[in-house]
Every structure is written in C-alpha cells, then in structure tokens.
Amino acid sequence: MPSRATVLDIGCGTGQPIAHHLTEQGCIVTGVDSSPEMIAMAKDRQPAGDWLIADMRTLSLSRTFDGLLAWDSFFHLGYDDQRRMFAVFRRHANAGAALMFTSGPSYGEAIGRLEGEPLFHASLDGAEYRTLLDAHGFAVVAHAVEDPECGGHTIWLARLR
C-alpha cells in the first residue's frame, strides 16, 4: 500500500491490535463494526480513527480505500453472507487495493467460545474463495493455511487487478 494508505477495517472490534498497528504505520484507518460497545472502545483507544457502527453485510460507504481488512470477523458470517461480501470488498477497493481476510482452513462450520459464550464460525473451501476473488477482480497474492507464524490463522492476501 502507499504511504498514508487509507484502510477499511471491516469488523474492527475494539481496534486492537490491528487498527492500532496500522495507525502506527501511518495508515488512515476507518473501522466498522456492528457492536456499538466495540466502536465506543475503539474511539477511546484510537481517537484518530474514523469509527462507524455498521453491518458489514450491507456496508456502502460511497468511498474506496487502499487496503481492506477483515481479520477474525468475516468468518462469523454464514456461507451465503460470505459469498455476498466479495461485492462489498470490491465496492470499497481503490484500483490496486490490497485485501486481507482470515477464513477457516476448509469448508465447514464450528462453534467456538468467547468469554464463555458460543461464537459461530464458517468457512468456504479454498477453491471457492479463489473463484470469488477472481470473479470480483482480485488476484491472490498469498495464502497461508493455519500459519504457525500467525497464531494458526488461515490468511488470504489479494490485490484488486
């Protein structure tokens, strides 16, 4: 991304640690999350950011960004909602924009736990993610499955062609 890149953090939560890191690197961050409580915490922790309460599935900000990030957020959506998100990504991407998101390692659903509460996770398979990226103008730059260097996350990095 260019210096002073604009980044859309989709499902930003509290803005920690990702948005904080991006801001330290000189990025101009806009974070969206459906939780008013999470957005309030993000505003307190990162006052320089632009923090918005919004549902990622219907996001329409009428502006584009140099980078899009859906870290530990996108995979809380069901299969069909994930498929529809690729149009949302495209709509918010500048020419040449980077897109990074996390997914599961393979097709399936799981229920995890966060602070004792059940938490839904779903993932398409890798071939379908590749097809969706390609259909929306993104080329895969890198893909790591359960990367041990990154806490076991499955990570996708793509660039808008």
Structure characterization notes:
Residues 7-94 form the Methyltransferase domain. Keywords: Methyltransferase, Transferase. GO terms for molecular function: methyltransferase activity. It is a single chain. The protein is an alpha/beta fold and 161 residues long. The chain has one domain (6-160): Rossmann fold (3-Layer(aba) Sandwich). The chain is 25% helix and 40% strand. It has four helices and nine strands. The strands form two sheets. It has a seven-stranded mixed sheet, with helices on both faces. Strands 6-7 form a two-stranded antiparallel sheet. Strand 2 (28-33), helix 2 and strand 3 (50-53) form a beta-alpha-beta unit. It is globular, with a radius of gyration of 15 Å.
Poorly predicted regions: none
Q: Quick check: average pLDDT?
A: 95
Rg from alpha-carbon coordinates: 15 Å
| Count of individual helical segments | 4
Classify the helix fraction into a percent range: 10-25%
Structural class call reads alpha/beta
Number of strands: 9
- CATH hierarchy, class: Alpha Beta
Global outline: globular
How does CATH name the architecture?
3-Layer(aba) Sandwich
What strand order characterises the main sheet? Answer: 3-2-1-4-5-9-8
The N- and C-terminal alpha carbons lie at a distance of: 14 Å
Largest sheet properties: 7 strands, mixed
- As a percent range, the share of strand residues is 35-45%
The CATH homologous superfamily corresponds to: Vaccinia Virus protein VP39
- CATH fold naming: Rossmann fold
